[in-house]
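Handoff note, outgoing to incoming analyst
You'll be picking up this chain. Sequence as last confirmed:
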Amino acid sequence: MPKVSQVELVRGALAGRVVSFPTDTVPALAALPENAALIFVAKKRSQDKPLILMGASEEDLWPYVMGTPEEFVIWQQVVDRCWPGALTLVLPASERVPTAMNPTDPTTIGIRVPDSSIARAILAQTGPLATTSANFSGEPPLETMSAIENAFPDVLTLDCAELNDKKQGSGLPSTVAKWTRKEWQILRQGSVQILDLEEL
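Most recent structure output, in case you need it:
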């Protein structure tokens, strides 16, 4: 599939296609949450590895999680400090989250707002998308849009002369922190340090 413009990529995502665009960490494969199963198929990924729900803002993502008013205050303090950025928060999922996002534990959902103006511009038009790194399961993340186009010919990739052959993102995964109803548990250490959360 040829690379497409941002307008065509948004239109394709809304029509149910898997798309790819840069983020602040590594380029993403993305689809509407209800089409999350398509990403597992494309990546040949085990369903015990959940996808991340990425949004343009925390306001777009809060409807997908559920918690007490006190918990929302704590979560908001974290996102005020760390978003947009490379921090994924794993929180209790609301009924709005399709089971396909996290088949083995649909009670939780990982959410993130990326520190990428391109990604947020796309997400502002599509709404939150199910995302994961652009690579086949078990292989390193692909870092250029041209490499993604070659590996995933059925995926709509963003066409931009400045992006196609240039490494996108930091190459470092996001830190993943899970809320345990009383504190944060670090599931994956990325560029956001544990101390950053312990201070909040």
